[in-house]
Structure formats: structure tokens, C-alpha cells
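Long-time lurker, first post. I've been practising inverse folding by hand and with some scripts of my own, and I keep getting stuck on stretches where the C-alpha cells seem ambiguous. Below is the full C-alpha cell string for one chain I'm working on. Before anyone asks, I'm not after the true native sequence, just a reasonable design that respects the backbone. If someone could post their per-position residues I'd love to compare against what I wrote down in my notebook.
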């Protein structure tokens, strides 16, 4: 039995495009994911987020589930195109009103809002102007951040600039699996830097409006293993996926391996803008990665699947909680042990609603138990870990996998939108309410 510290934050995470639906409601503009989903072959089951979990209309029910779980914090993302339909220009008051209602309902029920400004759903209006490849998008993002701080700075204590900008850069602009679906080496580098620059500009914009706001960023960090099999590929994957986003934010530099490729996009003063004090760091962790060099491709490296004998989820992601412990220790040693929150952690399972209306998912409960045990061990080893947000509250639109992968602790019957807590929900409820695993 592992006891967590007093005031440890227990929460859940979601993202706007994956759960909100209502894509043509109340003035919301189209995003790159609306566009990406229209192209045949991009989404496994040819679906989209047009309805998703209909959280836009059902958020009170979903917040009541958080209350039942015992979650004290909710990390959600706001859809930029609900606030500025094109990504610039006038504010759409209906979008502000929706998030105000959501935040007010959270606060009324003693759940702390953690607002993330960007979880991949860039307004299509900005993509038409070059998207994250265009340096100007970073300045538009700062304007959006200032708008959100002006409207919500008195009710939201915690602002997050980006969620997983590394995934946007690599999967969206290099490997082409995510929106906007590019495979372009220059786009990978320009997007990497402009996302980092946008973070720094947004931090300044929020602090200008709300000086005492808590501000952080969220990066997906997956350790690269088996370096001995391809040391050059492993070093490149680690630099591109992990260090290209943590190093500039926390150290003020880019990894040496990437500096020459990034240099055309870095202007004087950019790294100082990016490297500002943060109040916390959000770590998303799911699995490990194995690399193989791929010369001549946009990224220059591929991610290899684990071999069949290695424990893995139905998504093919290795289950290795010891690597979370190792990663947290490495983060502590490399970056000076800042306050850190695990802002996403979870797994896809083959969930089935049985005849009694129950969803048994013992593999997910085991996953949570083992990874939380690793997190507890890291705290014992001095890591400044302050909280844990499970991914995810709800089954949802799982990007290129459509609705074929379920990550939620609550089962969503999509035709009826009925919510059914899974066994893992009650497993986490016991942990959250007793502060121990």
C-alpha cells in the first residue's frame, strides 16, 4: 500500500475535439481536425468529432461523474475556434459563455479547473495561412491566450499553454498520421519552434493580464529504449520527441543534435521568450518507444512496435511502469525538480458492455495500479510530483483511430450517449478518496 502526500491533486483529463461535439453550434469555426476527418483514409473508421460525447450539451452530467469519482481537478482544453472562429479577429461571445458555464459548474462543485489552450485543434482559418509553419500563428496564439486570461483569469487558477506540441509537430507535420497530415522535414522544424515560441508569448500574455496565474505546459514524454540497437536513431527520436520541447522551455536551449535544423526559424530573443519561469510542468506518459533510423524521410526516424512477447495494450503500447519511475527521476535530475503533474496516463482496453450493463476492465485497473505505484516510488525518491490526472474520463474520438479505441474510465454508448462507469472507475474512486494505492 502506497500513501500519497497530503494535498496531492487527483483529477481527470479530456480534450475539446475529442468530447465536445457541436462542431457547427453557436458560431464555432472549423478546425484542422474537421478538415482532416473529411479525407478518406485518414480516420480508421471514417468518423469524426462532430458529435463525439456531446459534452457541449452534457457537461453537467460529466461533472457529476467527476464528483462521484472524487476528482478534485479537471484538465480540459478550450476550442480556439469557439473563441475566435478563424483563429483571429472578433471574439465569439457564445464560445466564452459555454466555457464560463462549464467553469462555473466545476467551481460550484468544488472541482478545480485546469484550462489548456491548445489540444491540437488549430482553427482552419489559421491553417489556411500556413498554420504552425507560419511564425505569425505564434502571435495569434498569444492574443487568444490574453483573451482567455481576460475572461477567465478570476475563476481559473491554472492555465496550460499547449498539450503535447511534440505530437503536433511530429505526427501532424512529419509522419502525417494526424492533422494537418503533412510529411515535410521543414514543416517539422518550423512547427517545433513556432509552437515553443507560442508557449513563451502566451506565458507573457497571461501574466500581463493575470500576474498571479499558475502557468505550465504539458509535454508527452515517452522514454526511448533499446538504444544499443540503433544509437543514432534513438538519439534523434529522443531529441525530436522529448528534448526539443522540454529543453527550450526549462533550460533555454535546443538539443545540440537539432540546432542546425532549427536555426533558420529561431530569431534573436526567441529562446529568452520561450524560457520563462513556470509554476508547474505537465507530463503525459503512456509507454516507451523504440527507434529505427529512416534517412530520406521527413522525420529521419521511425517508431518501432514492441515485440510480441512484451506486455502491451490493445493499441500496441508497451506496458512498463518502471520506465515512468525512471523518467520522473531523469526529469528531476535534468531540470532541477520543478513541480510536476502527471497530466495524462491510461490505456486502451477491449471494453464490452455485458448483459448486466457492466464493463469489466481489469487490465486498465492493473495499469493504473502499477503506474501509480511507480509514481509513488518516484515521490519517495524525491521527485516533486504534485498530482495525477487519469486519461480519460470518457471514451471519446481517438483521433486517427476514430471510435475504435476506448481510453475512458466511463463507457460511452455513442448511439444513446449513455454514460456507464467501468470497473476501473470504481477502482480509481477508491484511490482518489483514500489517497493511496
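-- Answer (accepted) --
I ran through it position by position. Result:
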Amino acid at each position: 500500500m502506497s500513501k500519497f502526500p497530503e494535498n496531492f491533486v487527483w483529477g481527470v483529463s479530456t480534450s475539446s475535439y475529442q468530447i465536445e461535439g457541436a462542431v457547427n453550434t453557436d458560431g464555432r469555426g472549423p478546425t484542422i481536425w474537421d478538415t482532416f476527418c473529411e479525407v478518406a483514409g485518414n480516420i480508421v473508421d471514417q468518423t469524426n468529432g462532430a458529435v463525439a460525447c456531446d459534452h457541449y450539451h452534457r457537461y453537467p452530467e460529466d461533472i457529476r461523474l467527476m464528483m462521484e469519482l472524487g476528482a478534485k481537478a479537471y484538465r480540459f482544453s478550450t476550442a480556439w475556434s469557439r473563441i475566435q472562429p478563424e483563429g483571429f479577429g472578433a471574439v465569439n461571445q457564445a464560445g466564452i459563455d459555454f466555457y464560463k458555464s462549464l467553469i462555473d459548474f466545476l467551481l460550484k462543485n468544488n472541482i478545480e479547473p485546469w484550462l489548456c489552450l491548445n489540444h491540437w485543434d488549430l482553427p482552419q482559418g489559421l491553417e489556411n495561412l500556413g498554420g504552425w509553419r507560419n511564425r505569425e500563428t505564434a502571435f495569434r496564439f498569444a492574443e487568444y491566450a490574453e483573451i482567455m486570461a481576460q475572461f477567465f483569469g478570476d475563476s481559473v487558477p491554472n492555465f496550460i499553454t499547449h498539450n503535447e506540441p511534440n505530437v503536433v509537430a511530429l505526427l501532424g507535420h512529419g509522419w502525417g498520421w494526424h492533422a494537418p497530415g503533412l510529411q515535410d522535414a521543414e514543416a517539422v522544424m518550423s512547427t517545433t519552434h513556432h509552437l515553443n515560441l507560442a508557449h513563451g508569448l502566451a506565458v507573457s500574455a497571461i501574466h500581463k493580464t493575470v500576474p498571479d496565474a499558475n502557468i505550465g505546459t504539458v509535454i508527452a514524454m515517452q522514454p526511448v529504449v533499446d538504444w544499443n540497437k540503433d544509437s543514432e536513431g534513438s538519439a534523434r527520436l529522443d531529441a525530436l520527441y522529448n528534448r526539443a520541447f522540454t529543453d527550450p522551455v526549462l533550460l533555454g536551449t535546443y538539443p545540440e543534435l537539432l540546432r542546425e535544423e532549427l536555426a533558420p526559424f529561431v530569431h534573436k530573443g526567441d529562446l529568452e521568450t520561450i524560457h520563462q519561469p513556470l509554476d508547474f510542468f505537465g507530463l503525459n506518459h503512456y509507454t516507451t518507444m523504440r527507434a529505427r533510423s529512416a534517412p530520406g524521410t521527413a522525420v529521419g526516424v521511425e517508431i518501432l512496435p514492441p515485440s510480441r512477447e512484451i506486455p502491451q495494450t490493445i493499441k500496441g503500447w508497451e506496458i512498463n511502469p518502471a520506465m515512468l519511475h525512471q523518467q520522473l527521476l531523469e526529469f528531476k535530475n535534468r531540470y532541477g525538480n520543478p513541480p510536476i503533474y502527471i497530466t495524462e496516463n491510461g490505456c486502451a482496453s477491449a471494453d464490452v458492455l455485458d448483459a448486466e450493463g457492466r464493463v469489466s476492465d481489469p487490465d486498465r485497473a492493473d495499469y493504473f495500479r502499477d503506474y501509480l505505484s511507480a509514481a509513488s516510488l518516484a515521490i519517495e525518491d524525491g521527485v516533486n510530483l504534485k498530482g495525477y490526472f487519469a486519461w480519460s474520463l470518457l471514451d471519446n474520438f481517438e483521433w486517427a483511430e476514430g471510435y475504435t479505441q476506448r481510453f475512458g474510465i466511463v463507457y460511452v454508448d455513442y448511439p444513446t450517449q449513455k454514460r456507464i462507469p467501468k470497473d476501473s472507475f470504481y477502482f480509481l474512486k477508491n484511490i482518489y478518496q483514500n489517497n493511496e494505492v
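A couple of notes from the structure itself: The CA atoms of residues 87 and 126 lie 6 Å apart. The chain has a mean pLDDT of 98. Happy to go over any region you disagree with.
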